[in-house]
Amino acid sequence: MALTPPILDIEHLKSHPALARLTESIPADVQAAKFDRDELTIWVAKGSIREACAILRDDRDCPFNYLADLTCVDWYPSEPRFEVVYHLLSIPKKERVRLKARVDGSSASVESVTSVWPSANFYEREVFDLFGVRFTGHPNLKRIMMPDDWEGHPLRKDYPVEGYR
Amino acid sequence: MTTPASLAEPVQDNTLVLNMGPQHPSTHGVLRLVLEIDGETVVRLRPEIGYLHTGIEKTCEAKFYQQVVPLTDRIDYLCPLTNNLTYCLAVEKLLGLEIPPKAQWMRVLMNELTRINSHLVWLGTHAMDIGAMTVFLYCFREREDILRFFEMVSGQRMMTSYFRIGGLALEPPIGFFEKVKKFADRFPGNVDEYEGLLTGNPIFQMRTKGVAKLSAEDAIALGACGPTLRASGVDIDLRRDAPYTGYENFKFKVPVSDGCDVWSRYVCRVQELRESIGIVQQALAGMPEGPVKADAPKVVLPDREKMKTQMEALIYHFKIITEGFSVPAGEVYQAVESPRGEMGYYIVSDGTAKPYRVHMRGPSFANLQALSKMCEGYLIADVVAAIGSIDVVLGDIDR
Fold first, then answer.
1. In contact, B147 and B102? CB cutoff 8 Å
2. To bridge B53 with a disulfide, which of A30, A145, A147, B125 should be the other Cys (CB 3.0-4.6 Å)?
3. What does the alpha-carbon distance between residue B356 and residue B127 come to, in Å, rounded to a whole number?
4. DSSP B133-179
5. Quick one: which of A69, A53, A67, A68 has its CA closest to A21?
6. Measured between beta carbons, which residues in chain B are less than 8 angstroms from residue A87?
7. CB-based contacts of B321: which residues, under 8 Å, 6+ apart?
């Protein structure tokens, strides 16, 4: 199963406040954008995901001040294998945007956004626990759901539903 | 499970580490809190979760889309219909499916009854944690009525699976609306009863006012949602701000309080009980006629009678049961205002009959992160009040 190809219509979607702000501040790191089923998705380079989150949080016109959700999708066996997904909400403007960072399977790690939103703490621990993606700069990156001595990361696609035999 | 060394070691010399839960009556399930205390004052609080982890997200990936509905009941077991609703809305968004008006209004009606049901359990147990036993009995009396309504429509009291992709499982039975109407007329009086026991009660006030404060900035930064966020003065309610399943047709107020304490959360939720019953009344008064399932034979199971008389219906039934229905590739995030806050389902489809990834954003999981901030600096007895005030459901946290 191949990774869904993102639609590269950044020019077309520039009117959206989140995308406009990101293309203005970090144009080189905005990889792609897609507007599908009333939801905007922006692919951001893995190295600048924390910066992108901070820019959107501090945007004066439309501050995306609330991290609604943080999760991950495993596209095994394609590479880059993981997509870390950030759902942001702007409480004053009631806008939503989805950020995505692609992470390689071999050295699965991405910068933590706990310094932007402390609420990312549990979500990142959950992604680390169930997918094995490491978050650099996380204050307490430990397993959260599974026991501490558990082997493997259950939500990876190469982890069987009924356990190893 | 062994206790990791880092949990057992206090950070300061004069403090003691106390383990609360996972089998503590006030933790509403299997929540374990590691408290670091100085005398009776909480210096640090760390929630330890995962005791109820069942891997529902992994299980979903191995099921057909329609088979996931009963699994969603088991996540937040106090509001199963809200889970059903969120999941169905997300899949319907992926499919681009139109839902008939009667199904939408029934969804609003049942969803608000679920909210009342969930708030009643919260009110009863929260008051009991603080020492007011009577309220619990009163709340469960009304909850019983609501569970009977669930049983009437779906045959189940708790794990209803009443909302299906494309509409409802069944037409509501004859006499259902009259019974709900009778309940809705009586219920505001019941809320007065609960308030008569608690709102003016000086002991309850002393235990809740000014306790477990959480400022609006902290609440947003820590990801609190629902009544916990609204009691910190943030005016947000997804039913009003991002209406779904026809909520834009209903008039209701969103209770907001800026007290930021346990008392404000109590006031917000009790007001919500009154607003919810108002929505139930509106839904009963304006209930449209018509079908309760979308006209999409490839997705919605046919009626039993059609199956016995029409060839195509039988074929569709066979195909849906044996090989499911394929959903166009894409991804959606559907958020719904559950009794505890923003419940979100993130579904990724790869175009097959099974979801590629289902992620549930549980409101209790988000609210739990704010608990440490709320409790630090307060007494151990206040921790009990604080847990009650954020209304945690462990099924929702651990999934």
1. no
2. A145
3. 42
4. HHHHHHHHHHHHHHHHHHHHHHS-SS----EETTEESSPPPTTHHHH
5. A53
6. 333, 344, 346, 361
7. B301
We report the CATH number of the domain holding residue A54 as 3.30.460.80
CB contact under 8 A, B236 and A118: no
Q: Cβ A122–B348 below 8 Å, yes or no?
A: no
- Chain A residues whose CB is inside 8 A of the B333 CB are 39, 68-69, 87, 96, 98
Residue contact B346–A37, C-beta within 8 A: no
Whether A36 maps to a domain, the answer reads: yes
Could you tell me the residue range of the domain that residue A99 belongs to? 11-106
Which among A94, A119, A121 has the least Cβ separation from residue B241?
A: A94
What contacts B160, CB < 8 A, 6 or more positions away?
Answer: B73, B80, B81, B84, B150, B153, B154
Q: Compute how many other C-beta atoms are within 10 angstroms of the C-beta atom of residue B267.
A: 19
Question: Residue A84's beta-bridge partner residues?
Answer: A72, A101
Phi, psi of A96 (to 5 degrees): -125, 150
Q: Is the distance from CB of B173 to CB of B153 less than 8 angstroms?
A: yes
Q: Which CATH superfamily is domain B56-398 in?
A: Cytochrome-c3 Hydrogenase, chain B (1.10.645.10)
Per-residue pLDDT of chain B (399 residues; tens, 9 = 90+): 444 445 556 666 778 888 887 877 666 778 888 888 888 888 888 888 888 888 889 888 989 998 999 999 888 888 889 999 999 999 999 988 889 999 999 999 999 999 999 999 999 988 888 888 888 899 999 999 999 999 999 888 888 889 989 889 888 899 899 999 999 999 999 999 888 888 888 888 888 888 888 888 888 988 898 899 999 888 888 888 888 888 888 989 999 988 888 999 999 999 999 999 999 999 999 888 888 888 888 888 888 888 889 898 899 999 999 988 888 888 899 999 999 889 999 999 988 889 999 999 989 988 998 888 888 888 888 888 888 888 888 888 888
Task: Answer whether A88's CB lies under 8 Å from A97's CB.
Answer: yes
Q: Is A8 on the interface with B (CB under 8 A)?
A: no
**CA dist., res. B12 & res. B37, Å (int):** 10
Is residue A137 a part of any domain in this protein? no
For residue A73, being part of any structural domain is answered with yes
Contacts for A155 with CB less than 8 Å, ≥ 6 apart: A72, A74, A130, A131, B57, B58
Strand partners, B233: none
CB contact set of B74 (below 8 Å; sequence gap of 6+): B54, B56, B80, B159, B395
Q: State pTM to two decimals.
A: 0.90
Structurally, how many domains does chain A consist of?
1
Give residue for tokens 């997200």. B57
Q: Which residue has the tokens 């309610």?
A: B237
For residue A69, list its beta bridge partners.
A87
The answer to whether position A129 is within a domain reads no
Nearest to B31, CA basis, from B55, B50, B57, B16 = B50
Closest CA to B126 of B369, B371, B375, B384: B384
What are the φ and ψ backbone dihedral angles of B255, each rounded to 5 degrees?
-70, 125
Which residues of chain A does B361 touch, with a Cβ-Cβ cutoff of 8 Å? 68-69, 71, 87
